[in-house]
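User: Teach me something about this protein's shape.
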Amino acid sequence: MLQFQPPGFGEKVINTSLGAMVYYTQTNAPWLNADSEDLPPLLFLHNFGGGASAYEWSKVYPAFAATHRVLAPDLIGWGASAHPVRNYQIRDYLTTINEFIRQTCRQPVTVVASSLTAALTIRLAISHPDLFQSLFLVCPSGFDDFGQGSGRRLPLAIINAPLLDNFIYTLGAENEIAVRNFLQNFLFAKPQRVSREIVAAYLTSAQQPNAQFSALAFLRGDLYFDLSLYIQQLQIPTVMFWGEAAQFTSIKLGRRLASLNTAAIGDFYAIADTGVLPHLETPEVLIGLLQRYF
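Assistant: First, the predicted structure itself:
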């Protein structure tokens, strides 16, 4: 959704096996120059959930536009990318993120990702380590870690009921009041940090045609898995960040996951007074932490 992008960033498109994937990168002043394509790639991957899109990282990635080729896609089923009508599965995202990296990056990529998408990135880095330079992950969770489901809030019988699932999505994600309440009550630690712009960006993404299919797949738990069964296989250098007030996936869970692989996971940072999206709630803090490494 181009209207919510920072100055100097524009929209480009690649084709994946599930349709067009829109991404945002430097296209104009003050960032674009003759050497931009040769800068090391830095990929930002957004979380899932009603209204999610690359906007989630838009307050962070301009800080690295002078030194990296920023790539911030709307994943398939979200934002301005294709919304195929299908029952989304884990393999859909492993496949399309893989395709995106191979089409846009000529060298191993540094990835900054959040929540369930960060957990999927770990799985992809295990199966395709040649694609990755390093990982910086915010609250990575498969939402069924250690066999304990954390994300589902509605019974499957209700979510899967004919017509009722669409009603739930319309009621819970396609109106401004519901979007603001969800951000304030579940994603942010401090409700006053939810701005009109944030609500508008999430609402615009949630109102895209067929947006309910990916959102309901997430709500049903079709994309959940136990990250603890995979994380020990990770070999790519990784840093974790965790909002101390994160709901659904607590910081205690984060420390437990990180302890399973201290060889690859070199650092773990707790970010005070933030929820599951510290990069949107206090972007200046995450920028400062990332600059230690970049």
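Now, about its shape. DSSP finds ten helices and eight strands in the chain. Residues 90-104 form the longest helix (15 residues). If you'd like, I can walk through any region in more detail.
User: That's plenty for now, thanks!
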